[in-house]
Amino acid sequence: MQRLTNAQLDDLPIGIRAPAYARAGVTPGILHLGVGAFHRAHQAVYVDDILAAGDTSWGIVGASLRSQSVPDQLNPQQGLYSLMVRSAGADDVRIIGAIDRVLHAPTEREALLDWIADPRIRVVTLTITEKGYCHDPATGNLLADHPGVIADLADASVSVTALGYLCAGLQRRKARGAGPVTLLSCDNLPSNGKTLALVLSQFSRDYDPQLAEWLNDNVSFPSSMIDRIVPATRAEDYQQYAQMAGFDDQGLVVTEPFTQWVVEDNFIAGRPAFETVGVQMVTDVEAYEDIKLRCLNGAHSLLAYAGYLAGCKTIAETMAQPAFQQLLTAFWRDEVTPQVEVPEGFDLHAYQQELAQRFKNPALKHTTWQIAMDGSQKIPQRWLATLRGQLEGSGSVRWLSFGLACWMRYVAGFDESGQVIDVQDPLAKTLAQIAREQRDDTRAWVSAILSVTSVFGDDLKANHRLQVSVADWLVAMRSQGTLAALSRSLKI
Ligand code: CS2
């Protein structure tokens, strides 16, 4: 079967919309690092709307920092891919033309550095996942002992990390006089712009002190809150779509109707008129980020670990269990809501209700396993500010303790029927080893986990109340099973 290319656009089946602009007239303005499904279902769609509205100077050049798979998916398709928006009602499909090409950074390093140094590029956007920032999630500081950081600082002619590529490219940009540029983080981190600014400035001081100076005056780092649920595309999605479309689209992304992007308006070298295509441009994004991380991502991780242990494959399946639905309500009501600061006019209750509906979307097969990935990098910003606040104010920590107990069980590496779990996490080995060593003493296990400072900082390991609460859950889960222990606690 033929792949999707520009040639197919003139003759698409009914129900599939083509880009509403001539692709040949588009020039590059944005460089994006990390062209995963999330970028393709979120930022690239807003940019596609900008191009359709007539400002064609913001085409996207993408770069994949590690794997060859996205360049292989998109380059033979001239950057085109289909966006399938799924809800219980119906699917809506359109083809996105905003991405021109995707570089494979490890084999095309020179080309990538040239793009970073290209004066037409005025914004570099990033979705490189939490661990891509090479930072200590507990403090936000650069991890000086990160193997990629060490490699990048040892030899300026190679790059491994996003920070390495950015510094090499920005050094070239500075040398060529290509002018200022905005680096826009679109990852799920609190104050993601500030996080990026901090690690890049710490990295660049060792890399090239003059570059570190230049960054101060020539780069802006707006923060942004990004929201759209985008599960990994499944084999059956590709097959069903090919049957419907009559061509093969290896770049297909499947997502939900909801989409939101709130961006701090701090672009040193100009920007697309994002506000005309539904982006909320604000002076301070932090309150939105904080609410989203704690309510949506916090709940996602909680449901993912608990659901996985109880045998639920997707978030929608997890939400179909009354106990997990009640857990979600109780978690928000008892622990999150007392801790978040709500901007004026924001209806937190309505926001949470809408989230619960989004989680229930049966057409989205968002796996608990996918969300459970990289917990050591996600938990600090999703759970711990809430947990610390509740501990300080003597509020409930019951549901977050349950979440921590589920996570501990998950990263120990075996599910409730003794099957091995494929744990994907940079700390997977350490966490599994702790579980092995402390197998016979639950309190010691909890204490050893809370002593992992890159996740929990220095303060939580000494908290007796937290230790007891997590240990009690682990004991109950071991004797009754996760779902039964939770149901009993909820008196269901
Ligand atoms: C999810 C997020 O995979 C995860 O950890 O919690 O990707 C989530 O779907 C998005 O942040 C939604 O905006």
TrEMBL record:
<feature type="domain" description="Mannitol dehydrogenase C-terminal">
    <location>
        <begin position="284"/>
        <end position="472"/>
    </location>
</feature>
<dbReference type="InterPro" id="IPR000669">
    <property type="entry name" value="Mannitol_DH"/>
</dbReference>
<dbReference type="InterPro" id="IPR008927">
    <property type="entry name" value="6-PGluconate_DH-like_C_sf"/>
</dbReference>
<dbReference type="InterPro" id="IPR013131">
    <property type="entry name" value="Mannitol_DH_N"/>
</dbReference>
<dbReference type="GO" id="GO:0016616">
    <property type="term" value="F:oxidoreductase activity, acting on the CH-OH group of donors, NAD or NADP as acceptor"/>
</dbReference>
<dbReference type="InterPro" id="IPR013328">
    <property type="entry name" value="6PGD_dom2"/>
</dbReference>
<dbReference type="InterPro" id="IPR013118">
    <property type="entry name" value="Mannitol_DH_C"/>
</dbReference>
<dbReference type="Pfam" id="PF01232">
    <property type="entry name" value="Mannitol_dh"/>
</dbReference>
<dbReference type="InterPro" id="IPR050988">
    <property type="entry name" value="Mannitol_DH/Oxidoreductase"/>
</dbReference>
<protein>
    <submittedName>
        <fullName>Mannitol dehydrogenase</fullName>
    </submittedName>
</protein>
<feature type="domain" description="Mannitol dehydrogenase N-terminal">
    <location>
        <begin position="29"/>
        <end position="275"/>
    </location>
</feature>
<dbReference type="Pfam" id="PF08125">
    <property type="entry name" value="Mannitol_dh_C"/>
</dbReference>
<dbReference type="InterPro" id="IPR036291">
    <property type="entry name" value="NAD(P)-bd_dom_sf"/>
</dbReference>
<keyword id="KW-0560">Oxidoreductase</keyword>
